[in-house]
């Protein structure tokens, strides 16, 4: 195609396949479904939903360039755009970056046309052009022509006369004359030299926006001076507006107050020893594993109930936070982390409650670095945002941990971008969170919400522009802030700097912000391999002390930790964990089926110090009493060979609530359940044991409660997925082939020519004859085809064989060999010799 393109579709046709691939990669929503030809692609690229999504992904300077084009003449020469961005004084940084910004807008099909005739697509112009309802971030108002539309011809003539311009015969030339005055730097400066100081002060207040102001029914003389000369134009009953051309003159030609061609620097930077950073991150990674493991242990016999609306109650969240010795907000993070990794879920029973999943059992058996990899991969890809737990939803209801409505689809992209910024720094370098947030806001200024728009009109006599919303308050900034905190908790960063294994975690083969789950898992596995040597080595011994405590000098091997957790209670955590032995903890071990001799041997084997005498006495004393009383179901009964002990229990006032009575010298009956009877007697200081219907002692092993098999929650995608290279290449081939079918020159046929866009129509005999001739001449045909579902399409095919009512042909549209029933072909036409 030669000459200047007249439409976006014509320009897209001139692009190379690589250019179309770049467009489809940048705007994947254009692929669903694959456009039939270039015209459909251009039409879809101009729809409002697609343009909004594309504009939201522009960085601040590219967005400022698009905003400048929206207030520039259409079409806009490149030099005019440069003047709007850099102003009359010029700006080397703007001049250096403007070609990149224009190229980015072209690549995303938001701008088309040659440099001397740049055009912003119509939908983008409608979105970014200033209006009374939607002020532009530039702060500019309407043009003189737009503001004076509908103004009476007499008033127009009075305004141009007051401005020192000759009167005209029609409103069009009057508006053009005033526009030329405001756009002429010398004449405009001369006019403003005659303005009262108060008038200039009013213009200064409206200069950078909002351009609208309020006036009274009887404006002050300095306001009337501006109204008389069109420097303020009525915009309603009591509102006025500063016209765009006048504002640009006062601004020195700049469309934006502060162009931002260069992203904010990541500073101030603090350099630390990379090895210290890695060690700090590894220690925190181990703490994260211990915290999640403790959560699973806390829920080993079943977790809290699921609310009717989903999620955990506030009371259960507080209880979990107390068990984990942390705050409620951090407890919500650990819960959501385990949920994202598929370690906890709801059991789906009638009385629904949360519990560990079967996957948690497998996770607990993995080496520490592999367990960390599972947590890190789940966190990085999760769309759930624990930081919003406790905040109110749209209906004012508090959002619950593990509940619905916690998904925020931008979360994975924000996490990767925040960590990616840290990865651009030298190893061991940390920067303040505010610097990271400022850079992210420059990269995606609109992703957190709408542009800064909609401010109320200011009073022209003295009000200033209404302040916009706090940029740090948008969703994207909050997600980034939570990312930096969560990365430190998980051990991805250490002391504010990205660790070596953290760099590997975000290093995937895909350049997309949303790599595939397989790529994320592979990167997490590589990162875990780097983390493994830094994790503390588990120990296989404890140090018993005379005060009935045991000190674990490091993380214990799993079997030892599990056995000791039954025999003793954890008193304190940290670098060394302290366990305390109590009568209750020893009885718990005996209830689990261990004998006193086995407990003594266990301690002697795993302690580097001798078993203290007080601890040995405690075990023997509790074991001597353990099981002397037997509890069974009658409703419940107590039996004991020592009738004196039963008499002692009956005489105890604390046993009144159990409603005991003697059935025999060695048997008491109770009007309560066996479990309640066990708890009641233990509260009185006895050590009863439960027995079965056969009279055998029941071993109270802590059998783990698990949910049925559950999968980790699927992330909620932020728009269509990024297409892979194979799909992009196939889509471009299909678009090219469809465009060929729609635009190729046809040889004339005897039948009436079809209307543009209509399927060709020929008789069955003509179709068959044309097909057979094409096979012999190896030529391409244009056909109309209706599939089994009744969907009609146009195709370009090269017939290979015609037999049995079918034609086998190479389909240029789908780039494959296909077979078509002849009765479904509505018509056929030969292509001109140079069409394929």
TrEMBL record:
The keyword Nucleotide-binding applies. Pfam families: Helicase_C_3 (PF13625), WYL (PF13280). GO terms for molecular function: helicase activity. Residues 766-828 form the WYL domain. InterPro entries: WYL_dom, XPB/Ssl2_N. The keyword Hydrolase applies. Residues 542-664 form the Helicase XPB/Ssl2 N-terminal domain. Residues 251-271, 448-473 are annotated as: Disordered. Keywords: ATP-binding, Helicase, Hydrolase, Nucleotide-binding. Signal peptide: none annotated. Residues 448-470 have a biased composition (Low complexity). This is Helicase C-terminal domain-containing protein.
